[in-house]
Design goal:
Blueprint lengths: L1 E5 L6 H10 L4 E4 L14 H14 L3 E5 L11 H21 L3 E4 L9 H18 L6 E5 L12 H10 L6 E6 H6 L7 H13 L6 E6 L1 E2 L10 E2 L7 H10 L7 E4 L9 H12 L26
Parallel strand pairs: 1-2, 1-10, 2-3, 3-4, 4-5, 5-6, 6-7, 7-10
Antiparallel strand pairs: 8-9
Helix pairs in contact: 1-2, 3-4, 4-5
Length: 305
């Protein structure tokens, strides 16, 4: 697995790449703007070029933008839905400009309109987005939910339903968040339960649809439906739950992004979590060896994908 983390961009887009490599990231996830804003300032072409060049010079294996928290592509409220679709289209454009591999987003909530109605609206939103940006090279990834309230996507069948309703499967995929899985009632802490989870993935969305992981331990118990992240090995999932995921050769070329809690020591807890995850890797599985941080060097040219 290509292990990495979600880093902030307050110091600049390119600086996030360099900071990521300094703590041992092989992959990187960012927000392209404040997640609490419907829209943000335009990304300067020079800043985007610097970001793409930094990704190339630092040798990152995978990159992603995470969409903000306000948009709800499943909303039954016409005004909110229009605004969400506009914001999502803008985010696709920003992700394309940055040259990242994926745009990850929360499927949203049906707000008591019903699961089927919510899934239909979500699928229609994605179809519209894909038709509006046919030249985009960014893969759009639905993130599984913890199942709180009327949120969609806590069940694989729901994710599968959306994917089946959109006629561009090559442009879509899924991100599996380990905390959300656990909160939604999926146990994977031993060989039997992990095998059962993988069988469910294969039988619904398909293994090839999983394009990224969010690697987060869980503060709340199994099936709690509470989205409460914890540092790796410090929560209810524990080390054994993560050992199977990061060492599974099926995910050897899949990015796994940390979204675990930080403190006043900035990214020190990320670095510790990355070391913990790498300590779980078993060579017999064929998982790739971690790449040491590279020395910063001047980048030339662009690495637009």
């Amino acid at each position: 697995m290509w292990l990495g983390a979600h880093l902030g961009i307050a110091g600049g887009l390119a600086e996030a790449v360099h900071e990521g490599r300094k703590i041992g990231c092989d992959s990187l996830q960012i927000f392209s703007k404040s997640p609490q804003m419907w829209s943000g300032p335009a990304i300067a072409p020079a800043a985007a070029e610097e970001f793409r060049a930094a990704v190339g010079s630092e040798g990152l294996r995978a990159t992603a933008v995470h969409h903000g928290y306000l948009a709800n592509l499943a909303s039954p409220k016409a005004f909110v839905l229009r605004r969400s679709r506009t914001a999502f289209l803008d985010e696709v454009g920003r992700a394309d400009l940055l040259g990242v591999d994926a745009l990850i987003f929360h499927p949203g909530a049906h707000l008591k309109s019903g699961v089927e109605a919510g899934l239909k609206t979500l699928a229609e939103s994605l179809q519209l987005v894909l038709e509006e940006c046919p030249e985009s090279r960014v893969r759009i990834l639905l993130e599984n939910a913890a199942g709180q309230g009327t949120t969609l996507g806590s069940k694989f069948e729901e994710l599968s339903s959306v994917l089946a309703q959109v006629n561009r499967p090559d442009r879509l995929g899924v991100t599996l968040d380990t905390c959300h899985l656990f909160a939604a009632g999926f146990d994977f802490r031993d060989d039997t339960t992990y095998g059962a989870l993988m069988d469910q993935v294969e039988g619904t969305i398909g293994r090839g649809t999983v394009r990224a992981f969010h690697l987060n331990d869980a503060k709340a118990p199994l099936g709690s439906h509470l989205d409460r992240h914890e540092n790796i090995g410090k929560g209810e999932i524990g080390l054994e739950g993560f050992r199977r995921i990061v060492s599974d050769p099926r995910w050897s070329e899949t990015p796994g992004y940390l979204e675990t809690p930080l403190d006043e020591h900035e990214y020190a807890r990320y670095a510790a979590d990355l070391r913990t995850l790498r300590s779980l890797l078993t060579p017999a599985t064929g998982a790739p060896a971690p790449r040491p941080p590279t020395r910063r060097r001047a980048a030339r040219g662009s690495t637009v994908k």
